[in-house]
């Protein structure tokens, strides 16, 4: 991965590292919500929810648009898929390592037998 890709991965995983932000993502992936409607779901100030939304927006996981006085947020499915693809890539690396370890163990067992 390039440096830019690594920076993007850092931003995505940082954004998703917080329980409230993951919950906000579940809600906005299911459908568009106003930031004030999102804030009503949490035991924290509106400003705190706005900050969580801003972190998700900066990471590219959600998009905001203005409709009158409301700020509407919706999840970006493409960005979520990029997170899934990064995790799949890491899983493939680990599966490859495990397969090589299994091969080493099998060859050592064969040599001993």
Describe this structure in words.
This protein has 113 residues and is α+β, with helices and mostly antiparallel strands. 71% of the residues lie in helices and 12% in strands. Strands 1-3-2 form a three-stranded antiparallel beta sheet. A hairpin with a 2-residue loop joins strand 2 and strand 3. The mean pLDDT is 90.
Set down the secondary structure blueprint:
Blueprint: H1 3-16, H2 19-30, E1 33-34, H3 35-39, H4 46-58, E2 62-67, E3 70-75, H5 77-112
Helix pairs in contact: 1-4, 2-4
Give a nutshell description of this structure.
A hairpin with a 2-residue loop joins strand 2 and strand 3 (70-75). The protein has a 3-stranded antiparallel sheet.
Descriptors:
113 residues; alpha+beta; 5 helices
H and E string:
HHEHHEEH
Strand proportion, as a percent range, falls in: 5-15%
Main sheet: strand order: 1-3-2
* Euclidean distance between termini CA atoms: 43 Å
Q: Label the overall shape.
A: elongated
User: How many individual β-strands?
Assistant: 3
> How can the largest sheet be summarized?
3 strands, antiparallel
Average pLDDT for all residues = 90
| Category by helix and strand content | alpha+beta
Number of helices: 5
Low-pLDDT runs of 5+ residues are: none
Residues in helices, as a percent range: over 70%
Q: What is the CA-atom radius of gyration, in angstroms?
A: 20 Å
């Amino acid at each position: 991965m390039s440096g830019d890709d690594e920076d993007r991965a850092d931003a995505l995983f940082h954004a998703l590292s917080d329980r409230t932000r993951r919950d906000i993502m579940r809600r906005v992936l299911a459908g568009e919500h106003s930031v004030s409607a999102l804030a009503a779901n949490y035991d924290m100030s509106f400003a705190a929810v706005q900050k969580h939304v801003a972190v998700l927006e900066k990471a590219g996981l959600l998009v905001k648009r203005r409709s009158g006085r409301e700020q509407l947020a919706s999840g970006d499915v493409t960005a979520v898929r990029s997170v899934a693809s990064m995790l799949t890539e890491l899983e493939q690396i680990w599966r490859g390592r495990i397969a090589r370890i299994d091969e080493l163990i099998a060859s050592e067992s064969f040599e001993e037998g």
